[in-house]
């Protein structure tokens, strides 16, 4: 009788372990980008990204369908940012050059979270300074709020007068045509690592 209990317990433990393994790896087989991911974003389970309407450097209203026609690295910041935004966008620009050297056409996109000061012209000049391929976008406060909410970013005006700062999140988002948002990068990602990961995503798309 004891042997029966031991055997039953062994079977139960085996089934439990199999169930845990299934839950851990469930869905990975359906993720074509599983080998490329560096974040904890799960395939098909992210609510990040989506349609947006903003204004380009010419003052023309554009949508995500017009902007994201190629693989894109999207960053939210503001042109008056004293250090973080220039450094992050310079890193992204370097990654774009590394990808270009690999024969991959990726577009850097800069979206302002400071619509009061970042006019289309100002954003356009900033983007052009950072990289010749960079697309600079701004918009009304309502448009900026909507796209920020879609990408789960944070920003808040800090201070009064004309010299205020804007606290904001510093992630870079990778989007692919026909897939939308697929990956997010932190500030500590190097240009080389970022480029390698983006190249992997493009190769798997």
Domain count: 2
* pLDDT < 50 runs, ≥5 residues: 1-28
Mean pLDDT: 87
CATH topology of the largest domain: Glutaredoxin
Total strands: the figure is 9
- What's the total helix number? 6
Short note summarizing the structure:
The protein is of the alpha/beta class and 205 residues long. 40% of the residues lie in helices and 20% in strands.
Would you write up a description of this structure?
This protein is of the alpha/beta class. It has two domains: 30 residues; 152 residues, Glutaredoxin (3-Layer(aba) Sandwich), CATH 3.40.30.10. The protein contains six helices and nine strands. The strands form three sheets. The chain has a five-stranded mixed β-sheet with strand order 5-4-3-8-9. It has a two-stranded antiparallel sheet with strand order 1-2. Strands 6-7 form a two-stranded antiparallel sheet. A hairpin with a 6-residue loop joins strand 6 and strand 7.
């Amino acid at each position: 009788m004891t042997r029966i209990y031991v055997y039953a317990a062994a079977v139960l433990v085996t089934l439990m372990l199999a169930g845990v393994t299934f839950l851990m790896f469930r869905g990975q087989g359906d993720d074509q980008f599983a080998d490329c991911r560096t974040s904890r974003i799960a395939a098909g389970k992210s609510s990040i990204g989506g349609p947006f309407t903003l204004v380009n450097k010419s003052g023309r209203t554009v949508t995500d369908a017009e902007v994201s026609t190629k693989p894109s690295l999207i960053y939210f910041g503001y042109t008056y940012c004293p250090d973080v935004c220039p450094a992050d966008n310079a890193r992204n620009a370097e990654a774009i050059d590394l990808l270009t050297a690999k024969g991959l056409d990726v577009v850097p996109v800069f979206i302002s979270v400071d619509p009061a000061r970042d006019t289309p012209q100002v954003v356009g000049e900033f983007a052009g300074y950072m990289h010749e391929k960079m697309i600079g976008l701004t918009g009304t406060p309502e448009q900026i709020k909507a796209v920020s909410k879609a990408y789960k970013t944070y920003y808040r005006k800090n201070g009064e007068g004309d010299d205020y700062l804007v606290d904001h999140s510093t992630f870079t988002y990778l989007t692919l045509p026909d897939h939308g948002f697929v990956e997010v990068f932190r500030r500590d990602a190097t240009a080389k690592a970022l480029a390698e990961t983006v190249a992997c995503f493009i190769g798997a798309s």
